[in-house]
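User: I'm new to structure prediction. If I give you an amino acid sequence, what do you actually give back? Let's try with this one:
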Amino acid sequence: MFSQCRFAAVLAAAAILSTTAAEAQPAKSKLDDVLSRGRLVLGTGSTNAPWHFKGADGKLQGFDIDMGRVIAKALFGDPEKIEFVTQSSDARIPNITTGKVDITCQFMTVTGERAQQVAFTIPYYREGVGLMLKANGSYADYAALKAAGSSVTISVLQNVYAESMVHAALPQAKVDQYESVDLIYQALESGRADAAATDQSSIAWFMTQNPGRYKDAGYGWNPQSYSCAVARGDQDWLNFVNTALHEAMTGVEFDFYAASFKKWFGVDLAPPQIGIPVEFK
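Assistant: Good question. You get back a string of structure tokens that encode the predicted 3D arrangement of the chain. For your 281 residues, that looks like this:
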């Protein structure tokens, strides 16, 4: 009886040790899966220039698309080793949590609520609201608009926060709301509005498409960060993507990042300062 009890105890101890050892084994990272597959599966949109949209050749292009190519190049040495899954904005988080995509890069604003569902990468762009003026218009810049007070009319996309958003920058301005971005630009062009208020990236893109006709008023507000997103709980994968994006903005892939920024936003970026990394100054 004693030997049987001792044998049972040994079996139980072995089972415990086996379970503990299994639990100690690190879970396989998405990084390993992507490398084994040989391509990155990226979730993004297809209808919002300059972020993600189809060109004349039917292929996706835009700043989000370029950020995906940055990650693909870091993975495989080839920015073309990427598969795009086009998705609506509502599908951005579900497609990550269900594993349909490896990562989403789709002008996704970082919020605390979303960060409870997905893991955000470091930001690759800081968005904000800006004001676009006609190059030959009555107002030179933001200071002139603000000084004009209630005589200024601002066109803006219709939404429940539109008026308060504009008044945060121009407290006395008249606010005219329109149902589409095209209409707010038309109001500016026709003279019904003195300035158009919209995302600064949209202003930059519109100005690159219409050189010399418009100008930025030189003031931005309502900042928000755009980041890619991956599934929670996979630090190796998150670290890798962060490294790829970080080095695009500050290191070995800066030329690619800067060329993309210039193409889509019309802005020449100053190269990263040599010496102590700027993030540690």
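You can read the tokens as a compact description of the fold. Here is one thing that stands out. Residues 127-224 form a domain with the D-Maltodextrin-Binding Protein; domain 2 fold (CATH 3.40.190.10).
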